[in-house]
From TrEMBL:
<feature type="signal peptide">
    <location>
        <begin position="1"/>
        <end position="25"/>
    </location>
</feature>
<feature type="domain" description="SLH">
    <location>
        <begin position="29"/>
        <end position="92"/>
    </location>
</feature>
<feature type="domain" description="SLH">
    <location>
        <begin position="93"/>
        <end position="156"/>
    </location>
</feature>
<dbReference type="Pfam" id="PF00395">
    <property type="entry name" value="SLH"/>
</dbReference>
<feature type="domain" description="SLH">
    <location>
        <begin position="159"/>
        <end position="221"/>
    </location>
</feature>
<dbReference type="InterPro" id="IPR051465">
    <property type="entry name" value="Cell_Envelope_Struct_Comp"/>
</dbReference>
<keyword id="KW-0677">Repeat</keyword>
<keyword id="KW-0732">Signal</keyword>
<dbReference type="Pfam" id="PF14343">
    <property type="entry name" value="PrcB_C"/>
</dbReference>
<protein>
    <submittedName>
        <fullName>S-layer domain-containing protein</fullName>
    </submittedName>
</protein>
<dbReference type="InterPro" id="IPR025748">
    <property type="entry name" value="PrcB_C_dom"/>
</dbReference>
<dbReference type="InterPro" id="IPR001119">
    <property type="entry name" value="SLH_dom"/>
</dbReference>
Amino acid sequence: MLKKSRLFISVVVILSLLFSSAAYAKPQPQYSFDDIQNLTWAVKAIEKMYAKGFIKGVGNKKFDPSKPVTHLEALVMILRAMGYEEDANKITELPKEYKGPKLSWGKSFITLAYQKGILTYDELKKFNPNEKAKRYEIAKYLVRALGFEKQAQENIDKVLNYKDWDKIPKNVRGYMYVAVQKGLIKGDGKKLKPNDPVKRVEMAVLLERLDERIQNDLNGRDVVATVYAIDNNTITVKVNGVLKTFNILKNAPVYNGNEYVGIDYLKTGYQIRLILDSKNNIIFVEVLNNKSEEVIPIELKKVTNPPQKVLSAVEAIKNKPAVKLVEENGVYYVIATRGMMRTGGYIINIQKAQITKTSKDTILEVEVKYVDPSPDAIVTPAITYPYDIKSFTYDGKITQISAKTDKNINISVDIDISLDIK
């Protein structure tokens, strides 16, 4: 009898361990390609860029990550990421300046790259679409695609602390400098390897960095939202205060950073990116913030007759770039200043704001745009103190304020609200 009891207990313990392990085991990733599972540093970029349609497989569920990309393939991927594929589809002819080999595909992308200034006149005449693209050449394409040609020319003589900087052709160093400074190209800390061919796996990572800068939303199919509810096959999210429900396709990848986490990882309040297919089904999910924050959009209104408390606040901060939040009679006022300017023509605009609620704080996040007069503008030769005031209503207490601008300017932030706001 004692032996049977011991056997029964052993079986129970073993089964408990098995079920416990299963409950807490990480989900097994379901990859779009059979040859990317070991590329832990790049698999999320591959899946994301594939979901967005910027990069394709090579057939038979293969991605062929180690294969170098050609110049034509690189241009096609970059132009897709920039949102120009529809423009390319309208083009049927190559530029007359093109003297390269005959092509069975991609003609329109070469023409479009030339029209967009990604390829110059001299480069087009010598362009070999089937040649492997080197890292410094991809850097040049990326920089031009983003409109940083002028910056590249201005920094052509700059030197970065890499052992192989002198291996970059002199007339391209400005492009590599800008690409590194903008975070598009990254070395290993010591070398950039500018003359190495770019592999398909590397191109996926470069495209993700490009996409992060331009934020191509695929005409509404790349959605940033906050999780509201999760069902077996659907996710309901809050987008700009509106609830939307999407079906999630079976085996759609879910990533937190570079880690595959699966759909069960998501919780209410997480901020996520959803990539949808043409039928608005979810095909990719990326966790952007897992701190269970709630993002609340607010409507800003132009203030033409501010109360005295607000005017006094403007006077107090007008000499410096600043953003201040003031509450008066239950209305919130956002003030943005630029500081003392020696002429007129400077404009400041509080473009948008949102409230982010965490478990500890309610944060007002403000975006400010500064506009300078053009060099040939006729402006008033007088000291000015440009500012903008916007108001909004919110039934709650804001505890913090943060601000960002489109210029490299240090902004001070301040908050002046009543303690009895609920």
